[in-house]
Amino acid sequence: MLVTRAIRIVAVTAVLMLPGISAVWTSAQTNPPRVFILDAKQLNSDLGKIERDAQKTLLSGPFSVTTKTVTPPSGDKRDYMSQAPYFWPNPATKEGLPYIRRDGERNPEIDKINNHRVLDQMEAAVETLALAYHLKRD
């Protein structure tokens, strides 16, 4: 899943940033930019929103795996960490391993691990800024 997201970020960025696809574009122009993944007509009506989103995005971040409050089993806070939401420590063992599944009950420990959320935020920021740059060259 992590690899799929990374590929999507690279693909969207690469397609939007191809040189020569479009010059600076304004919503008043009749010829929308050449795009491959998105609807060019929809972009025409959303240009102002895209610009506002890009300005807000410039203020977001930094995006780091080190902001989580728990340390991964490796002992290195720089390691990406995720936890299955329906798995809980095993009450029958001293170390709580192996974790056991409790169907339908979310383990609140998952809220201490924000790496997945930070990855989503970084992915959205890259996509927004790449799109805004492609359309406005700014």
Structural write-up:
- With 138 residues, the chain is mainly α.
- The protein is 41% helix and 3% strand.
- The chain has three helices and two strands.
- A two-stranded antiparallel ribbon has the order 1-2.
- α1 runs parallel beside α3 (115-136) and α2 crosses α3.
- The longest helix has 22 residues, at 115-136.
SSE topology sketch:
Layout: H1 2-17, H2 40-57, E1 87-88, E2 100-101, H3 115-136
Antiparallel strand pairs: 1-2
Helix pairs in contact: 1-3, 2-3
Radius of gyration: 21 Å
Secondary-structure element order, N to C: HHEEH
The end-to-end span amounts to 32 Å
In the predicted model, the low-confidence regions spanning at least 5 consecutive residues are 15-23
Sheet bearing the most strands, described?
Answer: 2 strands, antiparallel
Q: Count of helices?
A: 3
Rounded mean pLDDT is: 81
Number of DSSP-assigned strands: 2
Percent strand: under 5%
Helix residue percentage: 40-55%
The general outline is: elongated
Protein structure class: mainly alpha
Sequence of strands across the biggest β-sheet: 1-2
